[in-house]
What does this fold into?
Amino acid sequence: MATDGTPPSPQPPRAGTVGQSVGFPVFPQLDGFRGLAVLLVLIEHTLRHSLGLSGPWDHLGGLGVLLFFALSGFLITGLLIAEKSTRGTVSLSSFYLRRAFRIWPAFFAFLGVVALLKLAGWVVGTRWLDLAESALFIRNFVGRDQLLAHIWSLSIEQQFYLFWPLFFVRCSFSTIERIGWSMLLLVVGWRTFAVLGGLYSADSHVLYLRSDFRFDALMGGSLLAWARHLQKAPFSPGPGWLGPLSPVAMLGALIFWTAWGKSLPGGALNYLTVALILTVLILAHLVKFPASLLGRACQAQPLRWLGKYSYSIYLWQQLLLVEKNPSWGFIRQFPVDLLLSVLAGVISYHAIEQPFLKLRAHFSKKRTRAD
It folds into this structure.
């Protein structure tokens, strides 16, 4: 694996490994990055909701979601770039089918279980309307229950990927890149104006949840994929300016900023923007220097294992770690709630995600042969 600043050459896909496509290399360290993201969510929700402890860790879950967003933008845009480079365009039908096979089975299985628990009286704070809003992926705009609150992040991703691939059909690479930078700057500018103009306070949940205020998180990762494709900074040949930076120090700075950034001068106004910049820098360092200390840590089996099951764990942890009404006895008490959250994710991955991913692979081969 290259460590001299040159992106690694494409490798054959491996099961459970992030970043696999013709022309798009495998990044094992990003499996661990995803594991780190869900670990941050589990830490906050366990301390805050399961143990009732409030403190500087109260925003670690939001940081974990930010890592998910940036990683998703980088990987999916990288795949779109690879497809367009190979074929001259992208297949929208194939893209949306891949997303559906990846997201929908585990997601709707989770919603189905919540609906059954509601019918049985084991879920009381969730309305049928909340379930419908979640199923339509608009939970970041509407809804009030705690049990489905985490669906806001999936909603933002689904909304972003409804339109982002459309630009790859007819636009040139340079045009798409300009669109990406324009969108990122517009979102940051709109968010800043909304605060300075008095539309929303700097700590408003609206700024955290709404797509028009958060698309920059996904676009930051997307533009990082462009930089890698075009060999621009920070992926220009040689170690470049990223070389002297320590990803461990940057991660520490990011965690510090997440916990205390809002209390610093100007911190509340620039909270999400600074967090995104640090996240993208860390992600860039991991991609360019996989043999760094953080890169090796993210390639360690514990974090990669957690990353493998991260999507399903994220879906199920809210039901056990966060929602405590009504009480399910020891099931919703620490440490059983945490262990069951992970176990539910593992079961969901093997019983639901994997079969549908295999079906997706089989379906994709048939479509390729037909083309």
